[in-house]
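Exercise 7b. C-alpha cells:
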C-alpha cells in the first residue's frame, strides 16, 4: 500500500535528518559510530521473529472483527521493556487517520476479547542507548548529560519505529498473523500516546 511507503519514507527522512544534527563536536566519535552502525534490517528481523513467536504462543484466535491492533509500552527507558498488543474496536469507524506523520488519536474504542495485553515484542534495541549512558559517553566532564543526549535518544526511537513499521508489514503477511486475524483492510500502530502511525495490509 502507498501509505506504508509514505510512512517508511517519513521515518527514514526524520532519522537521516536527526543523524546530521547529532554530528556535533559535543558528541564523541564513538557515539556517532555507534549510531551509524544501527542496522534497521537486523532490528526489523528481530521484531518480526518476536511477533511471530509470541503470536504462535500467546495470541488467541478471535472471531470478533477488529478495527486495529494497539501496540503499547510504558517507558522505553526501562531495559528490554515488553510491549503488549490489544485488539481494538472503534466506536467511530473513521476516527483513524491514514497519513504518514504522527498524530494524537483522540477517538474511543473497546478492547476485542480475548486479545488484551498480549506479549508481542521487546524494545531491546534501546540497550545500545543505555550502554552509551552507562559508559559516560553522553555526559559532560562535570557528569551532566550533554545537550545532544536528547537527539541521540530520539535517533534510537526513530530507528526502532522504522524497523517496527517494516516488521509489522512483514508480520501481517505471515500465516501466524492471518489465521488469528479478523481485521479489515487497515490497522494502526500506536507506539505511545503521542505517536501514532497507520498502516494498511
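Sequence design result:
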Amino acid at each position: 500500500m502507498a501509505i506504508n511507503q509514505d510512512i517508511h519514507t517519513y521515518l527514514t527522512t526524520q532519522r537521516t535528518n536527526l543523524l546530521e544534527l547529532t554530528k556535533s563536536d559535543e558528541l564523541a566519535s564513538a557515539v556517532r559510530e555507534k549510531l551509524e552502525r544501527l542496522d534497521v534490517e537486523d532490528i526489523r528481523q528481530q521484531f518480526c521473529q518476536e511477533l511471530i513467536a509470541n503470536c504462535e504462543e500467546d495470541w488467541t484466535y478471535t472471531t470478533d472483527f477488529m478495527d486495529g491492533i494497539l501496540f503499547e509500552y510504558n517507558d522505553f527507558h526501562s531495559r528490554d521493556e515488553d510491549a503488549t498488543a490489544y485488539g481494538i474496536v472503534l466506536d467511530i469507524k473513521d476516527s483513524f487517520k491514514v497519513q504518514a506523520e504522527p498524530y494524537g488519536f483522540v477517538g474511543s474504542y473497546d478492547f476485542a476479547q480475548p486479545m488484551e495485553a498480549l506479549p508481542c515484542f521487546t524494545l531491546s534495541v534501546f540497550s545500545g542507548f543505555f550502554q552509551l549512558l552507562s559508559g559516560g559517553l553522553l555526559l559532560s566532564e562535570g557528569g551532566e548529560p550533554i545537550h545532544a543526549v536528547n537527539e541521540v535518544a530520539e535517533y534510537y526511537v526513530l530507528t526502532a519505529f522504522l524497523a517496527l513499521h517494516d516488521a509489522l508489514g512483514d508480520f501481517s503477511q505471515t500465516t501466524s498473523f492471518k489465521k488469528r486475524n479478523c481485521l479489515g483492510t487497515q490497522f494502526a500502530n500506536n507506539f505511545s500516546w503521542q505517536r501514532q502511525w497507520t498502516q494498511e495490509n
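Instructor comment: The two ends are 7 Å apart (CA to CA). Residues 79 and 127 are 6 Å apart (CA to CA).
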